[in-house]
Amino acid sequence: MDDLTAVLDTGRLAFAHGDWQVAHRDLSRARDLGTLPTADLDLLSRVCWWVGRARESLELSEDVYNRFQQEGDLAGAANKALNLGLLWFIRGDLVIASGWVSRARRILADLPEGVEHGYLRYLDAIVGLDFYGLGPARETAVTLKEMGQRLHAPQLTSLGLVLSGLADAHTGNPAAGFAQLDEAMLPVLAGQMPAEWAGDVYCTVIHTCHSLGDLSRMRAWTAATEQWCEQFHGEVVYSGICRVHRLQLLCTEGDWSTAEAGIERSGAELTGLNNWVAGEAYYQLGEIRRLRGDAGGARAAFDRARDLGAETQPGAALLELAGGRAREASAALRAALAGRDRLSSARLLGPAVEIALTLGHTEEADRLCGELEAVAADFATEGFRTWAVHARAAVLVAQGRHEEALPVLRRAAAGYRALRARYETARIYELCALAHAGLGDEAAAESDLATAVAIYGELGAAPDVARLDAGPLPGGLTAREAEVLRLIAAGASNRDAAAALFISVKTVDRHLANIFAKIGVSSRTAAAAWAHEHRLRGPR
79 burial class (0-12, 13-18, 19+ CB within 10 angstroms)? Predict the structure, then answer.
């Protein structure tokens, strides 16, 4: 018994200090030595989650819940049901999370108002976002702020600010939304919220920053979360979550080699603990592999992300485009855009413009660009504004309005520099080269193209380097014939290709006849296969 008492004491002390690894070791050993009191089993169930033992944590938590019920400790049972609801939500299983929330609601109905009732309201709202939208979240936000004042519970005020901040940020008022989300973090930073709930708030704020393209704020809160994790000893679950967010930013900045291995490892480690972030990790892994030319690896990563419940567009569509299947890519993005709210459509509209231009559908690209510009004007974040300017510049270049395009391209370049987005900066230089060439300034065009190729080379974007710096064209094709063949191989009709290149359909017919003769084929299908074999991919 003395051994059990001593081990329990060290385990409890380690838990109080956030030393989760030691707490897990000693509390597990204590359980092996004898039956743990309910309160200590509760500590063990919580620490298991922190050290990445999700299944053990959930099993022990259910045991603790049942013990509280048997002992008549209704408040303890309600708290445990709420904690289980939170953990299942973080894992990405909304159905089971909703079940535990219902259990907590049934118990709390017979108890006087307390902080637990506030946690219940927050979980109800956050789990219900996918089902009922933001309306109930706004109402709950008001209630939680009132409860926070009435019960002198800053953690409830914080959760209310999270909900109202999310509602504002997602409905076109990101300035007000981020102001509330920033304020919501104050009780978290002051240690006034249980660690599991604090971690969820951190993740919610960082995810919102990423969704809205506010990378500067995302960097700041990722750094703050990393600092928060330092209070705990050793590797914990939120260390892995922070690592994913840090690697997402590193991918934007262009260090793909460093990011690839780390993000794959983090995705595997977080699977089963936080499937939302694990899915984000695998999606980012797919993007790195797509841009580096590893189509098979990209597809596998996107499939894994999809299995974890993550959105795989626009990456999956752009992978189709890279493989010369522009029509399939267009169909996939159209399906993804159907029924989307304006915020979630923003990330898809730029790639949709790109695919429409590849197909020579300039009018459709112009329409999609207008939609993106409207979203960017309403939300006014640095990311959305830059995406919209980029899309407009691409449309202007495709329309042959090269002089108008150049100042727009300069704005896009400045925006991407502020975002530290290296790959997108290279794409702007590529468009600048086209604009300068269209104006007859070959020296400027060559300089811009060389800069684009240099950046692609530094990043390891092998397909882009091969596309722009391939030396003599295969088959003895001229540059114009190669442009026509790229479009035909991407699925464009002769009329589409003519519109994209601002030439007549008869001229396209003549180019195709010359192409067929030079490469020794007699059909469009064979020509497309030859183009893919010789890496004549569609224009970006």
Answer: buried
**pLDDT of 215-233, one tens digit each?**
999 999 888 888 888 777 6
Q: At what angle do helices 275-292 and 315-322 cross, to 10 degrees?
A: 20
The Cβ of residue 230 has, within 10 Å, a number of other Cβ atoms equal to 10
| Nearest by Cα to 89 from 117, 47, 130 | 130
Record the tokens describing residue 530, joined without a space. Answer: 């030859």
285-339, pLDDT tens digit by residue? 999 999 999 999 999 999 999 999 999 999 999 999 998 899 999 999 999 999 8
Cα dihedral 79→80→83→85 (10° resolution): -110
249 CB-near residues (< 8 Å, 6+ apart): 215, 218, 219, 222, 420
The pLDDT value given to residue 234: 59
Helix H or strand E segment including 461: none
In order of 343, 386, 398, 413, 524, the CA distances from 374 in angstroms are: 11, 13, 21, 20, 39
Cβ neighbours of 48 (radius 10 Å) = 23
Q: Helices 174-189 and 215-229 sit at what angle, rounded to 10 degrees?
A: 10
CA–CA distance, 131 with 116 (Å, rounded to integer): 23
pLDDT digits (tens, 9 = 90+) for 483-538: 788 888 877 888 888 776 667 888 888 889 999 999 999 898 888 889 888 877 54
Helix/strand/coil for 539: coil
In 323-421, which ranges are continuous DSSP H helix? 326-337, 342-358, 362-379, 382-398, 402-419
Mean per-residue pLDDT, 22-42: 91
Q: Give yes or no for a contact between 50 and 236, defined as CB atoms under 8 angstroms apart.
A: yes
* Cα–Cα distance, 24 to 204 (Å, whole number): 27
CA distance 463 to 458: 13
What are the Cα distances from residue 342, in Å, to 78, 136, 375, 386, 537? 38, 19, 6, 17, 31
19 vs 301: CA distance, rounded Å: 34
- Axis-axis angle for helices 237-253, 256-270 (nearest 10): 150
